[in-house]
């Protein structure tokens, strides 16, 4: 792991560069964000926003969405990856929200994870954005960027999350999540990172830099 001074330097640069960034997902309520994050698994945020712009004007509460059949729900989200499983999970989540949580999206991470299709990452995102719960959701961008920067080396998202919690001050967890995501989207891309354009070029220990 990097020394404290190096970690702080990296975080300061990321904060200065991405301090005003938020999630790219479009939503108007906690329920809409929950649905969008569930849909975002193995699907781009741009695609999710296309789907939600189509369905949220009609299906923006757990009661309305939960009234659909499995086949109807699948038809609504067919252009999203894994739509069979996501349709089942969305309907199960809607029913549980109505029956167990008075149609309110829970604020606790462990409680959120009781909902069908809601794992650690999804729960972290929703709790962090909606309820300001300190959390670091590790998606593919966060995993890739944090490893390349030497901020973490865990073999899986959960291990990486625990390492980042130790490396980053708790008051910056939620914001840092967005910094890593946007840096991964804009600069530190998976196949061909734009290292020559990177604000962290001098701080980054990544050995396979793309300086062409």
Structural description of this entry:
The chain is mainly α and 212 residues long. The protein is built from eleven helices and no strands. Helix 1 (4-18) crosses helix 11, helix 2 (30-39) packs across helix 3 (45-55) and helix 2 packs antiparallel against helix 8. 36% of the residues are buried.
List keywords for this structure.
212 residues, mainly alpha
Blueprint of the fold:
Layout: H1 4-18, H2 30-39, H3 45-55, H4 62-66, H5 70-76, H6 83-100, H7 109-112, H8 120-131, H9 140-148, H10 157-167, H11 173-186
Helix pairs in contact: 1-11, 2-3, 2-8, 5-6, 9-11
Mean pLDDT: 95
**Can you tell me the overall shape?**
elongated
Question: Based on DSSP secondary structure assignment, what is the total number of beta strands?
Answer: 0
Our count of helices gives 11
The parts where pLDDT drops under 50 for at least 5 residues are: none
Span from first to last CA? 28 Å
Helix content: 40-55%
Q: What can be said about this structure in brief?
A:
This protein is an all-alpha fold and 212 residues long.
